């Protein structure tokens, strides 16, 4: 035994000890493991001598058929071919011998150590052999496809036979995922070459030996799996990719089985949001946009404590984008209805986010914290948002957004909401402020909301807002141009503003006399007309002649009205002078 390799000595040490104490009778009657070990050892000693090993196999089959069957001979031959192939230098010869070994192993998958053989194939990068051998073993162990039937039917608990077949197939496919795991770990742990020279002086060029690229090998093996028609092998590898955090690789796969796999996972693991994430991304990747949109809608409304409101709104936004993309590729009425439905949900979801953000700015009392947590928990309908949140916590901007979204028109309610919004902005502005920086917050808010609602007169009651803002400005002594300058920034036409101011003056509201500012509206009109004189382009060319005539007529009317006022009104003469100076300037505008 001195010539035996050390590994063999260790491996067969136990059998040798048993052989020393075994009687001949025991060896014949119940010593099959020992005799099998002896036969294996005998064949190993002559591995590499094809002629002699074939002769030995034939002789053993002839003389000891119960100990060395035809399948034993086939397995032995396969192992011999594999052992010899490992040592070959020629890649061509090695590949031919590996393929030959695979043909032999494939005939006896029921009695070989599958993991051991695949491990040896892996060492010589024979990935085709790993995949093909596992496929043969799976077919041999489950020839009737009970495992696939069990999987396709939702893995029912009472199908014990199908479950056993499914689990057994999973064990058979294990060498494939083991090889992928090893290649993946090599890919992410490629060692860096040292930059420190071993000897002083200029660096010397060294020829680096060719090393296999783990990325290329991983892609090669994955491609072999994807070419197979064994759906359960696909399922096993897909599940491994998810567990290995390679979801990006999964959604890139083009396979007839991937969609069914993801749908099956979604139905079996209904609480697993990440599976739905993969499904919509797969649909988007394959341009199945309507499917992606529906999954995104489901995700946005999913009851999941880990989902934040921001994520839900993001899902809805992506869903709308997918529905729009789907509409570009099809004219189906169903897609149009889906888009409309998602856009409505998106608008409500944005309002919910707006409410949440508004609550976060309030003192964090327990009711406020509870409300924020509930808003994060799931998307609510429009009525719930109004009644339980916006109204309860007096969020005027949010209430205005809700009535606008719902198309609910109540002029009194809308005006009261605007008043609350404006009062909330001006409550901290002291009387007599003329500094633009101190009025910046109010101006920004008015421009933001104005641009949002100005397209709909119902929800942007312009005449009411001009009156309310000018009255507030008169009380707080704002600059006479602040209101109309802000509304011009919103996008309100100058001619429209002039008409509103004209009617406001002619209404002769007693408010102006009450606060001691009877000339306030006329001073605002003077400021507005000056803006027109400086920037005539604010009125379209074709409108200017009629607008100029309207302004001149109105100025004449204002001057007549001023003549009837008592001379003790402060600033009266200045206002008259200001208005008179406007007419010749308007005359020069063409």
UniProtKB/TrEMBL annotation:
Q: Where in the cell is it found?
A: Nucleus
Task: List where this protein forms a coiled coil.
Answer: none
GO molecular-function terms, A-Z: structural constituent of nuclear pore
Q: Where is this region: Disordered?
A: 185-214
Ordered alphabetically, the record's keywords are: Nucleus, Transport
Organism domain of life = Eukaryota
The reply on keyword Ligase is no
Q: Where is the composition biased (Polar residues)?
A: 186-197
- Specify whether Nucleus is a keyword of the entry: yes
**Nucleoporin Nup133/Nup155-like C-terminal domain: which residues?**
13-565
Which segments show compositional bias classed as Basic and acidic residues? 205-214
Query: Which GO biological process annotations does it have?
Result: protein import into nucleus; protein localization to nuclear inner membrane; RNA export from nucleus; transcription-dependent tethering of RNA polymerase II gene DNA at nuclear periphery
Write down any Gene Ontology CC term: nuclear pore inner ring
What protein family does this chain belong to? Belongs to the non-repetitive/WGA-negative nucleoporin family.
Task: Quote the protein name from its UniProt record.
Answer: Nuclear pore complex protein Nup155
